[in-house]
Every structure is written in C-alpha cells, then in structure tokens.
Amino acid sequence: MHTHSTAAWGHTHTFGQDRPRAAEQRTLLVLALTAAMMVVEIGAGLAFGSIALLADGLHMGSHAVALGINAYAYAYARRHADDPRFAFGTGKVNALGGYTGAVLLAAIALAMAWESAARLLAPVPIAFDWAIAVAVVGFVVNAASVLILGVHDHDHGHDHHDDDDDQHHGHDLNLRSAYLHVLADALTSVLAIAALLAGKFLGAWWMDPMLGIVGAALVTRWSWGLLRDTGRVLLDHQAPEPIQRAVREAVEGVADNRLYDLHIWSVAPGACAAALGVVTHMPRPPDFYKALIPASLGIVHVTVEVQECGEAPVQQTA
Fold it and tell me: What pTM did the predictor assign?
C-alpha cells in the first residue's frame, strides 16, 4: 500500500485574519476616549440636570461596551486564525462583532426614545451653562473619534441595492459598527448642544427631549442597515450578482463549459469562497477552472466539481 504526502496541496484558511489590523488599534484608542468622556458626561448630567447630557453619557457607556466587543472581535479573530476548528478561518468573527454592535445600537435607540418621551411628560430643571460646556467637550471627543476610525468607504445612511453586501467588497463590518457607534455619539452631542441652546435662549425646554427622539430614529436606521449587511454575511448570503456573473462568464467563456452549480459567499472582509459545478464534453483538472476566475474578485478558496457530459455536442450548421 502506497502512501502519498498531501503537503504540496495543503493551504491555510487564515485569509489574512492572522495579521494585526490598523483598525484594531484605532478602535482601542477610541474605546479609551469614549470611556473617559462617558464618566465626565454622566457626572455632569446628574449634577446639572440635563437629560440630553445624561443621555449622551449613558449612550457613551453603551457605546464603550460595543467598542469593547469590536476590539475583542479583532483580537479573537487574530489569535484563532489558525485554529482548525474554524472550517473557513475566523473571518466571520468580524461580521459577528458588527452584528452584535448593531443589536446594541438598536437597544440604545430604544433607550433614547424612552427616556426622551419620559422627560417630555416630566421635565426637570437644567443648569444650561455647565451642561452646554460639557456637551461641547463631548462633541469634540466624538468628532475626534470619528476621524480616528476614518471609515469613508461605505454609505452608512443610505439604502443599498442587490450588490450591497459590504463584506463582499472588502469592507470591514466590525469597523463599520464601531464607526456607527461613535457617529451616533457625535450626533447625540450635536442634538444635545442644539437643545440646550434652544432651552437657554428661547425657553424651548421641550427641544431637549424632542431632539432625543429624532436622534433615536436616525440611530435606528443605521442599526437596521448594519443588521441587514452583517446578517447576510453570517447566513452565507450569495455574493452580489456582478461577482456571480463575472465567474460564470469567465468559466463558460472557454470551450463548452457550463456551470450547473455556483455558490459564492463571504469568509472574511474582501475574501470569498466559491463552489463550482462544471459540466463539459472535455473535462480538465480542477486547477484549470480555478485559473479562469479573475483574481480581482477576491475569491480565495475555490472547490470545483467536474462532470463529463454524456450527450453528443451540438453541431453548428451554417
């Protein structure tokens, strides 16, 4: 009985998850800033009677928890990248971190709406000058956090279409979650400042809780978009149609190849796996069909099944 070494055909399934990411360091820095400002704003909100300021501090606390989850997701994915228990590596930990952050965003929005409605029914006196000063400091910290995370390659506020799966296009959904949390903090700070100014100079005390409800509605929309995109990755949603079409055209554009089965799904940010079923009159080795797939599509793991067509080829007549 002969034994054969398979080392020449083996490969890893880390898909880049074993390398430290700059986003992980930025997330940790923003986590530290957020936690520090949380303590200041909660204390100031309690001392000066501003629900907008207190809400901002409490939201910062929940965002600090979410950012902690995002940071942990990066560390876990990196440390377990070579763990054989993960069939396709730890790339989906990224999406799981983003999904968890989206759930927390939804909970934060609900808490914002609830507290704002309660203050509409039972207003409390506000020490406007101190509250405005702390709210401005909070906004500066939040704006700095947004710049540190620096996510500019996705549309966080608009609906997507059939090709909208961010992770298929290389976007970091875990980073997007962290970005949306600090963006929600910045929004809350802006609304708090606007409400406090309106209360101080116009006597419009109701602006404080009303703008809290407006902020809750916007955060809910962001949360839904992130839940949708991360959920698609976690549930192995098919890659966007342009990627499927490109693979089909590349394979079927050679000889008489036809695809009878095609599955493409995300395994990490910017990395997809694919399973192809090819039927042809002239079967070739699997590597032949793998080489036909454009490298630009980001398909890093391909499984090919080749079937010989038993039917006679159709003769073309003039």
Answer: 0.75
